[in-house]
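Help! Submission page says 'invalid entity' but I think these are all valid:
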Amino acid sequence: MTMQAPVQVVAPPSGGFEGAGGGGGRIVEWLRRNLFSSVSNTLLTVLVVWLLIEIVPPVFRWTISEASLWGDSKAACTGDGACWTFVRLRLHTFLWGHYPDAELWRVGLAALLLVAFSVPVMRDHVRRRGLYLVLLLTVFPLLAGILLVGGLPGLPYVDTSDWGGLMLDVIISFVTVAGALPLGVLLALGRRSELVVCKYLSIAFIELWRGVPLLTVLFMSAVMVPLFLPHGVSIDRLIRAMVAFTLFNAAYMAETVRGGLQGVPQGQEEAAASLGLGWWQMQLFVTLPQALRIVVPGIVNNIVDLFKDTSLVTIIGLVDLLGAVEQSLKDPAWLGLAKEGYLFTAALFFVCCFAMSSYGRRFERRLNRHRTGAP
Amino acid sequence: MIRRPSRRAYAAQWLLLLAVLAVASLIVSDAADNLGRRNMHFGFGFLADRANFDIPFHLVAWVESDSYGRALWVSLLNTLLVSAMAIATATGLGLLIGVMRLSVNWLIRNIALAYVEFVRNTPQLVQIIFWYFAVLQTLPPPRQSILMPGGALLNIRGLYVPAPIMGGSGGLLSLVAGVLLVATPILWRLRRNGHRIGARALILPLAAAGALIAGIERIEFPTPSGFNITGGIQIPPELAALWAGLSIYSAAFIAEIVRSAIEAVPKGQHEAAHSLGLRRAPLLFLIVLPQAIRIMVPQLTSQYLNIIKSSTLGAAVAYPEIFQIFAGTVMNQAGKEVETIVIVMAIFLLINLLFSAFMNWYNQRVALVER
């Protein structure tokens, strides 16, 4: 190794001196810039570090070091920490509700089918992405529905009131997205239409569904829709809820897609028209691909929001993850474990939603990789 | 314009209208049929009937012999109360977290990021239920209340805050304070010697506060007596849980709105301000915030609308807001499903309309006039 020069003429970008202490120099420089850059900044850092020292160790003790995980009942939860035994023993109900044990393989198979149908849609260079998307949104729900409901020889019937847990949230979300996305696109196009009827019907639909709380909509589906059906006709409660969800979220998707449609330069439509493309062809091949690409983050946000909103079905009596936790907490054998139950619910939702939004960010980056600079 | 619809499309839209009207009339006739079968008749006369139930928390007087109509009014006030409280705290907290997200300090930036990410990726209902069942319901009974700073007591029955008792002239002083507050924006805009009075008009709200404080005779502190607490204002745990859940959830979204609005102000503005010698605080208030607010207001308005609509989640923690009381208890008792849901939806649509009208007015007012 050559001797280092005593004075650096040009400071390296990292700001530290090269040499044996180079790494340490960079760390010190980072600390100085980010944590101790000014007097007020230093004071803030000290305050925050003190708060962290006060808060983190007790939380860690409660959650992990003094918590109980093994055992058969609440009596196994000795110690001052959290009683994760409750979660472990009831995990089955939290994930699939009261789906019969013997038929759980159908749920696993449906999940595998979901992965199989989704992978072609999400891969990098796919030529017929639209086709795979249509397959995902039409053929897959059919297959999965038959699998999960049964009623065929070899597949005993499982009533939808036995479906529950996280599985129910995923099912409701998936069906809602499958229905709300196309419907939302149609509504957004209708809102921009020159046809008076289409335009005002779309506006009325969108404003009506966006103006009322989701709970009212769900309540309406549970209580009022049976009134509106002809006598003797009844629709399954889960299907009613899913329809209500779909219509509600279609309005929000429509607003998101409308933003995208407004972002497509008008020249695109003019060029398409000058090539002789009809209105539908123009939308399908020119406008929508660009519009949807612009609002992928908005659509991902809508999907994450609707996944979170599926927890509202507990209030109309369907037992999803939140409902399963609430039911288990009412069991006399597990009283007083509200913190553990709801923290677990929050954590599970967090993991799913965070994964979805991270994936959405990556998907958006991949979609727009062909763009070099600013749009 | 090139987007002239074809004649076929033009004719088809009337068919669409016909189809929609046909379905609507089918629904209405089915509903009338079903209602007739159950011997119920459509009508709003039930609003005058006696309620016969108690509402545990009410801002105006309520007794069991009041009508359903009054129950609607009481529960609507409860909804507006929790919404107003949540909007105020969510905005404050959201502004704070939003500014923290832009901080130079790495710790503060990432703590704010963790907060936003965790709160945004968890359902609001779960958060509200957590605050109620996992936190507030595990508090000690009134005899072992926790003493909070300022003399407030916290226990399982709620939060008891010290209550200021106004003296004899309290009513008059409140009126004076109200007038001063209303006059503030008017005075702000007045011009004198060529300058707007502007921020100097803030002396009026200060005077209003002074008037109110002068009218306070004494402060009633909550004290335990027997098994209960006397004195002070009681904030029931349902209200507190709903308030906390709504505020904390919305603050995360407002933080993102604030952050993206401030970041959307072009970098050139900062650089020009620096080149003029403006330092951090005047730069923020004179240059960045006015431009950021223009971007923020529409998004904030729709976030406030979401808060008002999410207050219906109070039904999960038994807070007596409009959904729980009117679309719950009243509907079950009076059996008028269609009418109650129609009323509740109409109220929310009206609130929505008011907010949209305000947003349109504001957007037009601050729209950038481009060359």
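Support: the input was valid. A stray whitespace character was the problem, and the output above is from the cleaned input. The two ends of chain B are 24 Å apart (CA to CA).
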